[in-house]
Design a protein that fits this description.
Length: 302
């Protein structure tokens, strides 16, 4: 082995240097990813003191706790935002960006958005309480329902995505995916009073737009058809995922695909349906027994 090892090392080094992946001098690594996980945990603790925090927070301690944890977050997160901006500039051969200034602006915008993020999350929690007869208390939902971590993480990651921060939003969203089984791309636009019941296996794509008061169940996919140009290359900037309007309910294992697909306001999508065309407002879609074909009916026909 001692004789073969130098050759293996040289071949590995050559392959690594030729590849278009992270190198040590890019400033991004697994240690940095783990620190982003810690920052995300601190952000969740700031949004839900006493529930997601590592210690109990008394009412008179909330102001001190928030001041301390937000300073801690700011100190650590701005460094990582700066690094990913610089990483992208190196990849894109950009020489005009002021990455330090952009990082400070992005961090400031995120911190300032936390109040509105929490307000929206409280609407999500109320929707969960209103929509799940098994829920007894809001605190029970915060502490035990997997969708809370998924949607709270998403609303943080989406804010960073809107600020054009690379990589970090995906690290955050995929951490939530790995822990909850709910896969929400940080680019997805999701309105308030959003509830995912049970949650396992839900997929929501990057260009999906979801309105207010939407409820979905486990196994739902809001996904994309394969969108390619004449040469067969993927079109990454095109609208690929469906729009879900207000007050829609989507039952378990439904699959809704396509950037031109719109599920109209107040529609109900039955379980195990496959939908690639728009559905009118107020319609009910379900699989007709016996042949698996999806049928559309007006409200009241079911």
């Amino acid at each position: 082995m001692n004789t073969e090892l130098p050759e293996v090392v040289n071949r590995m080094e050559k392959n690594i240097l030729l590849s278009n992946t992270l190198q040590q001098n890019d400033g991004l690594d697994l240690a940095g990813r783990n620190e982003i996980y810690e920052i995300l945990d601190d952000l969740l603790a700031a949004l839900f003191p006493g529930c997601y925090s590592r210690e109990k927070i008394k009412t008179h301690e909330i102001n001190f706790f928030l001041s301390d944890i937000l300073r801690h977050i700011s100190f650590k997160l701005v460094k990582h935002i700066r690094e990913v901006y610089k990483y992208r500039c190196r990849k894109d051969n950009c020489t005009t960006c002021n990455c330090d200034e952009r990082a400070i602006k992005a961090l400031t915008s995120l911190i300032e958005s936390l109040v509105s993020i929490r307000e929206t999350l409280m609407e999500d929690l109320q929707a969960a309480y209103d929509g799940d007869p098994a829920a007894r208390y809001i605190d029970e939902i915060i502490l035990s329902y997997p969708f809370v971590e998924a949607i709270a993480t998403h609303r943080i990651a989406h804010q960073l995505y809107k600020l054009d921060v690379p990589i970090i939003p995906r690290i955050m969203s995929e951490r939530a995916h790995s822990r909850t089984g709910i896969d929400i791309h940080p680019g997805a636009q999701i309105g308030p009073r959003f509830f995912i019941d049970h949650g396992t296996g839900v997929v929501i794509g990057e260009t999906c737009r979801i309105g207010r008061n939407v409820k979905i169940y486990q196994g739902v996919t809001l996904g994309a058809m394969s969108v390619v140009d004449k040469e067969g290359n993927l079109l990454k900037e095109k609208k690929r995922h469906p729009d879900i309007e207000d007050d829609v309910v989507i039952y378990a294992n439904a699959t809704i695909l396509g950037g031109n697909t719109v599920i109209g306001k107040g529609a109900v999508i039955g379980g195990n349906t496959w939908i690639t065309r728009s559905v009118p407002p107020g319609a009910k879609i379900y699989n007709k027994a016996g042949n698996g074909n999806s049928k559309t009916f007006a409200v009241g026909d079911m």
